[in-house]
């Protein structure tokens, strides 16, 4: 299974904020959209990613104000990305080895989607269900 196949099921909607957005405003968007991370995109350029983990470690634990801190001050700017043709296995490997939960999908330097660990797990479960059903029907014949 490829990233493109996952996005065709999940959808390619991408939520983002500007790097000049306050952390508080970014958190409001994340809460409204029920997402655990948001991309930071200025124009069409991917500048970073902000996660709940970034907020907890770089705002809460350091006793900073989310209303006075800008996203660019705490975002992860070294963003690992994937392409539409990448496999589910390569996504799992990246997420596991880099200890990340979200992978932006880039095509021709434009963000076209995002894959979360939840999307990967759901896809693996679906593949396993299909395999089990196929084996059950094979055995029943």
Would you write up a description of this structure?
The protein is of the alpha+beta class and 141 residues long. The chain is 48% helix and 20% strand. Strands 1-2-3 form a three-stranded mixed sheet. Strands 4-5 form a two-stranded antiparallel ribbon. Helix 5 crosses helix 6 (117-140). The radius of gyration is 18 Å and the shape is elongated.
Tally of alpha and pi helices? 6
Number of strands: 5
Question: Residue ranges: pLDDT <50 for 5 or more in a row?
Answer: none
Terminal-residue CA separation? 27 Å
- The share of residues in helices is 40-55%
Q: What proportion of the residues form beta strands (DSSP E)?
A: 15-25%
Task: Provide a short characterization of the protein structure.
The chain has helices spanning 3-10, 23-33, 52-60, 71-74, 88-98, 117-140; strands spanning 16-17, 37-42, 45-51, 102-107, 110-116.
Outline the fold blueprint:
Elements: H1 3-10, E1 16-17, H2 23-33, E2 37-42, E3 45-51, H3 52-60, H4 71-74, H5 88-98, E4 102-107, E5 110-116, H6 117-140
Parallel strand pairs: 1-2
Antiparallel strand pairs: 2-3, 4-5
Summarize this structure as a short list of keywords or feature phrases.
141 residues; alpha+beta; three-stranded mixed beta sheet; 6 helices; CBSX3_CBS_dom; CBS domain-containing protein; CBS_dom_sf; Diverse_CBS-Domain
